[in-house]
Write a structure and sequence with these properties.
The chain is an alpha+beta fold. The chain folds into five domains: 79 residues, no CATH class; 124 residues, GAF domain (Beta-Lactamase, 2-Layer Sandwich), CATH 3.30.450.40; 107 residues, Beta-Lactamase; 102 residues, PAS domain (Beta-Lactamase); 213 residues, PPM-type phosphatase domain (Phosphatase 2c, domain 1, 4-Layer Sandwich), CATH 3.60.40.10. It has 22 helices and 26 strands. A hairpin with a 5-residue loop joins strand 1 and strand 2. Helix 3 packs across helix 4 and helix 4 runs antiparallel to helix 5. It is flat.
Length: 728
Amino acid sequence: MGTRPGRRPSPDWASRVRRLEAEVSGLRRGMLSRGLIEQAKGRLAERLGISAEEAFAYLTDVSQRTNTRVVDVAADVMGADGGRPDDAPAARRLVQLRAATAAVADVADLLPLLARDGGLDAGAVALFAAEADGALRLVAADGWAARTVADWRWVPSAIRTPAGEAIRRGEPVWLDGMADPGGLTLIGPGPRRAALPLRVDGGIRAALEIVWETAAEFDDGLKQRVSAAAGVAAGWLASAVRSDDAPVAAELSERWLHVVVDAQVVPAAVLTPLWTEDGVVEDFRIDYANAAALGVWGGSPRGRRLLDTDPASLTNGTFDAYARAYESAAEPGVGAARCGPWLVVSWQSDGRERADDLRVATMERLGCFGWGEWSAAGEPLAFSPGLAAILGRPAHRDGVPLDRLLAGAVPEDRDRTDAALKALRQGEEQDFEFRWQGGNARPRAIRVVASTRADHRGGVRAIVALFQDLSEARRHEAEAVSASGRLAAQRMQAAVERAQTEQLRATFFPPPRARQRHGPLTVVARHTAPAGIHRFRGDFYEATAVAGGFVLAVGDVFGSGVQAANAMVRLRHTSRVLALSGLGPAEILTLLNRDLCMDEEPSLASLILARLSADGRSLSWAQAGHFSPLLIRDGRARSLRRPRGDILGLTGEARFTASSVELGEGDLLVMFTDGVLHRWSQDASPTRRLAAECVAAAGAEDLLDRLLPAAEDEACLVAVEWPSARSG
């Protein structure tokens, strides 16, 4: 049956794409298997003294006799070390995995191989790199949704993850999914995790995290396979970092060579040797040449052979000297040196005239100008390399007639160029600009300064013109105008935001300082922010007297600006209302988290909520990823054990629990935000420095003055003090 007129059959593109992906995957696996078989053939040929064909016949014969795949037989050959027979499958898998990853050039292709060929049967594999500040950077992931990868491209140091713990401890982290993860944040779906640190060049630089969709205990076999996969990943990373053939390293090296060659006043070039089948250098390919070399060779010789461009180098011995220089046998006086896979050469032409030409060529290149001379009829008489470069023509080619050159102007400028050419033929000097468009290139701004030479009768004998490419100058001028406009707009926006910030700060932020009594306890709090800060940050505190007790809140919203201010106001005032309703700290955090997670892009925040009993002797609290309170008792400070709770806004299914502690005479309880620790950001343990300050302080008021004497950064600190009997 045919389709109805006016409608086209809709192909099943999804099935076609899946089929093509399967074909590509099959081809890739086939190529990797072939590489392992070729390695095994080479080893057998070397060990047994046989040919490659005989080695392959040996492999196929063993395959048929043992009913084993040829690639598995090849893996046995490459991994044969006298191990136990029951180790053979694992050894084969490891050899095949190493062979497969050796052919991988990108980390995005490495992870699927680890999951598939490593025998892991995992749902997802991710590679995290360790940052200097303790944060993690997600390098690549396989099996996670694009949204998950985008959301967790960077993981702050405050968020504890299995990969971060593996890097910090320097040992694997195994989570079977059947017990509480111990406060660790699990990225992406899947309760069962394994995170292993990757040691590269003597240091732990990354971590491999493997995720399974269902919970189960780790047996010894799976742990060995996971550890082997991590070892392969570490080896691949080490080889990628040290390899001279890495794409990034090669690109940087080649770019550096180009800069060096361009800086030479004399002709210089970058060459790559071309070999015969016998391993003899038969020619060099010109990969790059500076302007001086272009003036000698003419045009752009990039990609051409040296002997085609400069045949005389074979007869005058230059070519042979270059070949010896590449083999680290350079002769004195030969301007050639090997640099990685390239040969950098330079030479000095003889004669003063050549030196003058080089100086002129250098000035033309630096000034983006060139000159030409034409007859009165417009036929080219002379054409400098600089003008050839502006027009994109080989310097050794004949020049362009003047009228044809000016005819390359954009249609809007044709009247101007026609009038200038007419005036020149009448003997008048000209200075004009026009937009020239050669071929399909983008129009370029060209300035022309031209004069004439008279013949013996006073007529025009020749026209001499200097052409200068002003495209870059005009582009910079346009960018400067645009930047000036953007700067003015930014200044206006900054002024408006500064005014709004000051108004909103006075309206919504907590008071700079507060002091309240609750039974025998004294509660003091302080919020500081630099006077010149123009953007909201999210540090806040709240102290509320409720029926049968007293509630304290200290929080920190991630980020800055209006969004952070909005989240801060929501958390501060909502927590106060919920506390007045009689809810406990864990219940309040649960409701606040659900409210944030209902947003399309939830804000992230850490928060600690504490409730003092009516007599002040008992304190219960819950935490959402915040710093734990410090308790100073009998001259010693300790951090209270953190109850369960992730940061707010991370997931709507987060669960929170509460802990409690008994207070007595002489106790001092301190809650704070990370701004308090910034003065010790260079120390290995800033919280330890804070604890020492708390012990040394003479009470809560003195502690606030010691820790927040000036607003170095936005910060909040709340202290609860039970005076000792002697001070009372």
